[in-house]
Amino acid sequence: DDIIIYRIGDGHFLVIVNASNTDVDFGWMRLHLDGGVRGVGGDGVSLALLRPERTLLALQGPRALETLQRCTDTDLSGLGYYRVMRAHVAGVEALVARTGYTGERGYEIAFDARHAVAVWNTLLEAGHGYEVVPCGLGARDTLRLEASMPLYGHELDRSVNPFEAGLDRVIRFEKGPFVGAEALKAVQSSGRTRALIGLELTVPGIARMGHPILLPSGEVIGAVTSGGPSPTLRKSIAMGFVPVGQAVEGADLLVEVRGRRLEARVVPLPFYKRAPAKPRTKSPMA
Helices H, strands E: what count in the chain? Predict the structure, then answer.
């Protein structure tokens, strides 16, 4: 699962999982906790599902900081990427994290679900003048694809290892033993058999998850995991797994879409990377 673990205090962690994987992820942690984890048994660790339910709102985009700052007295300007802090947002106690799955600067705000409508409306009102608008998972997924972020059920599942998905940067063998380390070392030693690639269609059409990826000869070598039109790049893009030997930048491939074989080219990932934020001069809030 593509989870985020927030360290919110000494020995205190908050785990945000995909809703559909809650029981699986919790069960996996419970299993390893009961069996002892790195010498720490159940006597030293408490694991619990949060109740009451929490809401997680994502405020994403170049004016996210200005918008959210209007809703809290806590200074958010120093909150670093993938860092979290406590704050009151719209008068509601919340955890504010500098995270998101859009490739843009943004924040995710976790709080008691009973206040969801009030916080939502406050954020929208604060975004007047900053072009803040509601968006659904379809829009989010388009941005996620442009930024080439892997998603569970697409680029990630139980059959995919981190090396195949291009996530070897997050593996730290030097930190000491961890669950799965030996299996990952074996994969690293034997080498990848497939790789995640970026594709850019060179003819009109839209590649979607499950569409076959073929060599120019017509041999099927893989499948699309995520795909769609890119409003930012004004191109049709996709990601998918192919054998390592075919993951060559600039190589010509085909994607079969509803019986039509569309020409595509292997391109580097990510498709899009936002420019670094320019330093902002602090000014008093209105």
Answer: 5, 12
274 within a domain of the structure (yes/no): no
SS3 50: coil
* Residue 247, Ramachandran bin (φ over 0: left; ψ between -120 and 50: alpha; else beta): beta
Global pTM reads: 0.88
Residues 179-214 have pLDDT tens digits of 889 999 999 999 999 999 999 999 999 999 999 999
Query: Which helix (H) or strand (E) covers residue 34, if one does?
Result: helix 22-35
CATH of the domain at 82: 3.30.1360.120
Closest CA to 36 of 47, 27, 45: 45
Which DSSP symbol is given to 184?
H
- Contact between 37 and 44 under an 8 Å Cβ cutoff? The reply is no
4-38: per-residue pLDDT in tens? Answer: 999 999 989 999 988 888 999 999 888 888 876 55
38 within a domain of the structure (yes/no): yes
